[in-house]
Amino acid sequence: MLTNEKKLFIGCESDFESASAVIFGAPFDSTTSFRPGTRFGSSAIRSESFGIETYSPYQDKDLTDYNIFDAGDPELCFGSPEKALEDIEAIATEILAADKTPVMLGGEHLVTLGAVRAVKKKYDELYIVQFDAHADLREDYLGQQLSHACVMRRCHQLVGDGHIHQFGIRSGERTEFEFAAEHTVMHKYTIGAELGDHIDDTVKALSGKNVYITVDLDVIDPSEFPGTGTPEAGGAKFRELLSALMKLCGGELNIVGMDINELSPHYDPSGRSTALACKLLREMLLMTAK
Question: Which residues, other chains included, contact 21 with Cβ-Cβ below 8 Å and sequence gap of 6+?
Answer without folding.
Answer: 66, 67, 68, 69, 100, 101, 102, 103, 285, 288, 289, 290
